[in-house]
C-alpha cells in the first residue's frame, strides 16, 4: 500500500468510526485489505482508534496482522491475551521474531506459553531466547532442513517429498554429522541437476560462509552484503554444531532497523518509538534528553556569563555570537555524521583514523579561513568596525578546527567506551562547539576590544 493509499484508508476508517459504520471497517480489516496494509493502519492510528480497530479484527486474522506491526505494538496487544489466544497468534510468527517478543512479555505468561509447546519447539524457543536480540543467535531461525553426507541424491529427494513445503528462503540444504556438527551445504542448483546415484559428500560445498552465534547483527548484515548471500548457517563457535540459519529477509530488517536506530537515537528517541504512543509514555522518553540538553545549555550560558562586562560594553558581540556557534555546530555535525557512518560500515580503524583526522583538520582550516573572510567582510560593512571583524574571523577559524577535531575523535572514543555514538555524539558535539565558539569569540573580544 502506498503512503497515499494509507492516508485514504485512514480517512475512510475515521469517517466510518465517527458515523458508527463498523461493518464497513470490519470488511476492510478482515479481507478487503492485505494483512500488511491492516498493520500499517494500526501503526498510523492514535491509541483509542487503534484499540477499536484491533477489536474489529477477527481472532483468526489477528496473527496474520500482528507479525507485520512493530514489536512495541505487538507486545501491547499480546500482553492482554490469554495463553490460548497467544499460542494461536504465535503460530504466525517465525521462531526468531517470537523469541524477541516473548522476552518482553511478563514471565508468568512466557512460562505458560513455553509449557504449552511441544518438547522440541520449547527447546528451540529456549535456545533462541538465550541469545541477545541483536546477535546472530537471536536473529537466526531454527526452521532448517538438514541431511547427512553419506546418503544419495535419490534419498535426499525422497526425504524432501515428505515435507509439505520447504522453509522460506531455502537456497541450500545444510549437511551435518550425526552429532549435528556442521559440515557444509548442498545448494539447490546442484541438487536439481545431480544424478540420483551421486553421494551428497561428492557434490556438497565445504568452503562456505558461516556465522557464529555470538556475532552481532551488524556483522551479519555486512557479511550478507559483501558475499551476496540469501541464507547462511549459524553455528556454535565451540562445538561447531548447527544452531539454525539466517535469511536475507531477516538481514533486510536489520538494515532497516539500524537506519531507524541512527535517525532516532540522534534525536534521543527509542528504537521502537511509536508515532502514536500515549502522552505520558512519550513524555517520559523525551524528558530525559531534554534534561541533558538543559544541562549543556546551562554550561554554554555560564561561559557567556563570564564575559558579561564585555557584552555590556560591545553590544554588537551579542548580535554576532549565534553565528560563531551555528557555524561550528554545522561543521561538526557534517564530520560526526560521516565518521559515524564509517564506523557503522567498519571502514574506520586504528590504521586510517589518523589520516581521516588530518584531512578533517585541513578541511576545517580551509573552510574556516574561507568563511571567516566572508563573515569578517560582512561584519565590517554592517558595524563599520574592523576590530570586531578580526575577532569574529578568529573565532570562526578556531571553532571550525575544534568542530573537525571533536566530530572525528568523539565517535571513535565513544565506540571504544561501548557508548553508541549516534545516541550521545550530537549532544556532546553541540556542547563543545557552543562552549568553544562563545569562549573564543568573547575571549578574543575581551583581549582586543577592551
TrEMBL record:
<feature type="domain" description="CBS">
    <location>
        <begin position="204"/>
        <end position="263"/>
    </location>
</feature>
<dbReference type="Pfam" id="PF01769">
    <property type="entry name" value="MgtE"/>
</dbReference>
<dbReference type="Pfam" id="PF00571">
    <property type="entry name" value="CBS"/>
</dbReference>
<dbReference type="InterPro" id="IPR006667">
    <property type="entry name" value="SLC41_membr_dom"/>
</dbReference>
<comment type="subunit">
    <text>Homodimer.</text>
</comment>
<feature type="domain" description="CBS">
    <location>
        <begin position="140"/>
        <end position="203"/>
    </location>
</feature>
<feature type="transmembrane region" description="Helical">
    <location>
        <begin position="388"/>
        <end position="410"/>
    </location>
</feature>
<comment type="similarity">
    <text>Belongs to the SLC41A transporter family.</text>
</comment>
<feature type="transmembrane region" description="Helical">
    <location>
        <begin position="361"/>
        <end position="382"/>
    </location>
</feature>
<dbReference type="InterPro" id="IPR038076">
    <property type="entry name" value="MgtE_N_sf"/>
</dbReference>
<protein>
    <recommendedName>
        <fullName>Magnesium transporter MgtE</fullName>
    </recommendedName>
</protein>
<comment type="function">
    <text>Acts as a magnesium transporter.</text>
</comment>
<keyword id="KW-0813">Transport</keyword>
<keyword id="KW-0472">Membrane</keyword>
<feature type="transmembrane region" description="Helical">
    <location>
        <begin position="287"/>
        <end position="308"/>
    </location>
</feature>
<keyword id="KW-0812">Transmembrane</keyword>
<keyword id="KW-0460">Magnesium</keyword>
<dbReference type="InterPro" id="IPR036739">
    <property type="entry name" value="SLC41_membr_dom_sf"/>
</dbReference>
<dbReference type="InterPro" id="IPR000644">
    <property type="entry name" value="CBS_dom"/>
</dbReference>
<keyword id="KW-1133">Transmembrane helix</keyword>
<dbReference type="InterPro" id="IPR006668">
    <property type="entry name" value="Mg_transptr_MgtE_intracell_dom"/>
</dbReference>
<keyword id="KW-0479">Metal-binding</keyword>
<keyword id="KW-1003">Cell membrane</keyword>
<dbReference type="InterPro" id="IPR046342">
    <property type="entry name" value="CBS_dom_sf"/>
</dbReference>
<keyword id="KW-0129">CBS domain</keyword>
<feature type="transmembrane region" description="Helical">
    <location>
        <begin position="422"/>
        <end position="449"/>
    </location>
</feature>
<feature type="transmembrane region" description="Helical">
    <location>
        <begin position="314"/>
        <end position="340"/>
    </location>
</feature>
<dbReference type="InterPro" id="IPR006669">
    <property type="entry name" value="MgtE_transporter"/>
</dbReference>
<dbReference type="Pfam" id="PF03448">
    <property type="entry name" value="MgtE_N"/>
</dbReference>
